[in-house]
Amino acid sequence: MFKILAVVVASISIGASAVPALSQGNDPYIFDLDSPQLDVRASLGDNTDNEFLKYGYPGPVSDFLLRSRYATSFNRALRNPNWVAEHLTLANLNGTADRTNADFKEDKDIPVMFRAHLKDYYRSGFDRGHMCPAADAKKDDQAMKETFLLTNMTPQVGVGFNRNYWAYLEAFVRDLTKSFDDVYCISGPLYLPVQEDGKWYVKYQVIGNPPNVAVPTHFFKVVLVKQGSDFSLGAFALPNKAIDNSTPLTDFDVPVETVEKAAGLVFFDKLERTSVTPLCSKTKCSFK
Asked: What's the predicted TM-score (pTM) here?
């Protein structure tokens, strides 16, 4: 039997500014995009057929899950989604499904040893925060229930964030369907560094007994809207903490490339980035 020693960080300090690791001038996560977006997709193909992997490919494995109202990539090590992608329109937001008929459930598509468990959240002090909101899945009961799978969840501070500011951001994204034909939204967690004693560290809490699910330091939403043949793109990165309701949403508006570098992801790479306008130049980025 192997004994695993886990050091649990009791709290995450994010400094004076709202999103310090994405906003300070001396931060390594700020960089200039000096070349057009490149095609970074690659496939293992037959590359696992070699002497080094004769008896198996160890991973990592990011489980891809396609649901009625979203697609997601699940991180087995952190027990959180890497990202959750949605396509919203006025029409597909319609429906009568009620969230009171849905229960939080473990996702049986993930092997038990890599799964987030309901008991991990019990008395953790964190909400089970939706990446694809339940309000985006009123299509039918099945779609609604799928948003309550733990592969669509990540630990979020409740009061002031999941139940407030994050929910307002979710509503802002839904409301974009009133002004644009199509809204594409990709949401997910971030684990950003903090500076202490002149050095940078990545520190995050892990919940569960034994420790199982990572608590992100921040969350992002990358939003692409389409009206006719015109596209606009924006990104928001928010700290996983209570945020005053009066804080302007534009305080969390960051370059898409900054989120890409922090998350190790590439968003909407089938579009030519130089032909896409900033979202907040096309619509007012604020809550009603």
From this structure: 0.86
pLDDT band of residue 234 (cuts 50, 70, 90) is: very high
Catalytic positions are 130
Q: If we measure between CA atoms, which residue out of 17, 78, 81, 21 comes closest to residue 202?
A: 21
- Percentage of the chain beyond pLDDT 90 is 78
Q: Which of 214, 150, 216, 215 is nearest to 189 (CA)?
A: 216
Query: C-alpha dihedral over 84, 89, 92, 96, to 10 degrees?
Result: 100
Backbone region of residue 84 per phi and psi (left: phi > 0; alpha: psi in -120 to 50; beta: other values): beta
Q: Are 105 and 150 in contact (CB under 8 A)?
A: yes
SS3 118: helix
The β-bridge partners of 278 are: 233
Q: Is the dihedral of CA 154, 174, 22, 241 positive or negative?
A: negative
